[in-house]
Amino acid sequence: LSASFTTMTTRQDPPSPSPDFWFKDGSIVIVVEDTAFRIHQSILSRHSDVFADLFTVPQPRTDVQSIEGCPVVHLTDSVADFSDVVRALYEPFYFDRLPPNADLSTLISFVSGILRISTKYNLVLLRQKCIEVLQTKFPCTLEGCDALLASGYKYVSSTIVRAIPLARETNIPELLPWAFYISTNIATDAILDDPILSWQDKALCLAGKNHLWEMQKSLTHRFLFEFTKALTCQQACQSRLPQTMNWRRAEELRANPHPLHLFDDWDTLKVCSKCLELVQAQHQKGREQVWNRLPAIFHLGSWDDIHKDQNR
């Protein structure tokens, strides 16, 4: 993302000093909207090569504006976002403000401004910290997915849809496969009426519903729909399998597909140990296949493509 800034302005009214970040020994004044931050050029340069390059470019003498002897740089960003970044830079334990059990809405509100600014101006460490925070709710490995499912965390649909445009805006494609996956459990009408998602992303959510449902029937939970006994079965398990999958239950699953769900109600199948071993292996292999194909389902390429795109 390109950075937008200028070193002069035609504004008539002087900006108001930030009540929190106006240091008497500050060496640079950053003006964002109507607020001026007198901070330390060395701190910005140490964390951002974009700011470091800006400060080393000589400016024509006639173009230089100063406040209290400090050069002034105007940024075309949100003052709330920039305030969050400065606070994170000056407070070493800023991220410790997040409670360990913070919900997704809290996490997104906490990091979104920092993420936008750190991505735009290449504050690498701050950006990575924000990504790590979000990945606690949007795993990019099957192991992380299993840990999240085991925690029993419940998503709120209105919060899920905030994550998708944020991930796109700040180039964090690693968040998108899981974000789209859980979005497929949002009701169709709610997806269509959502004011945040683009129409392209709405289409991906709706198409993904059908893809995941087909994978749940054919790969991960096939034994619930079409049971095939093991070759070494000696108890006629196929005829003994309870018929628990009625049309009502199938319709519920179709509307809310979840092929990565870890099936654990094995005792209800009432099959022999050989058949049980077979379906458990099929179940786990199917989950691995679904996870590996997850980005492609939502037109994101492969996991390798995603990792490369994010690290460019």
From TrEMBL:
<dbReference type="InterPro" id="IPR011333">
    <property type="entry name" value="SKP1/BTB/POZ_sf"/>
</dbReference>
<feature type="domain" description="BTB">
    <location>
        <begin position="26"/>
        <end position="102"/>
    </location>
</feature>
<protein>
    <recommendedName>
        <fullName>BTB domain-containing protein</fullName>
    </recommendedName>
</protein>
<dbReference type="Pfam" id="PF00651">
    <property type="entry name" value="BTB"/>
</dbReference>
<dbReference type="InterPro" id="IPR000210">
    <property type="entry name" value="BTB/POZ_dom"/>
</dbReference>
